[in-house]
Amino acid sequence: MARADGDARAGRLSAKRAPARKAKIPPRTPGVRWWAVAAIAATVLIGLPLAHAFIGELGAVLLGTFIGGFALGRATSR
C-alpha cells in the first residue's frame, strides 16, 4: 500500500487526520499594582515608626520582618 511519493506507512494513516490544535494564549500578566506599592510605602513610612513608638525598636523590627515575610510569601506563591 505504498503511496506514489514513496511513503509506505502513509497509506493507512492518511485517511483520518487529527483536528488541528489551537494554540493556547497565555493569560495576561498583570502590570504593577500601584495600590500594593502604596500600601508598602505607607507601612514603611507610617506603620514602622508607630510600632517603634508603641512596642520599642526590637518589637518594630520583628513585626516588620514577620509582616514583610508574609507579604513576600503571598506575592511570590503564584
Could you explain how this protein is built, in words?
The protein has 78 residues and is mainly α. It has a domain of 48 residues. The protein is built from 2 helices and no strands. The longest helix has 43 residues. It is rod-shaped, with a radius of gyration of 30 Å. The mean pLDDT is 79.
Low-confidence stretches: none
Assembly state: single chain
Mean pLDDT: 79
Q: In DSSP terms, counting alpha (H) and pi (I) runs of 4 or more, how many helices?
A: 2
Work out the number of β strands: 0
Strand content: under 5%
Radius of gyration: 30 Å
Instruction: State the major sheet.
Output: none
Order of helices and strands: HH
Percent helix among the residues?
55-70%
Any idea what the shape is?
rod-shaped
| Class per helix and strand makeup | mainly alpha
Distance between the termini: 53 Å
SSE map:
Layout: H1 10-13, H2 34-76
Structure, briefly:
This protein has 78 residues and is mostly helical. It has two helices and no strands. 0% of the residues are buried.
What attributes characterize this protein structure?
78 residues; mainly alpha; 0% strand
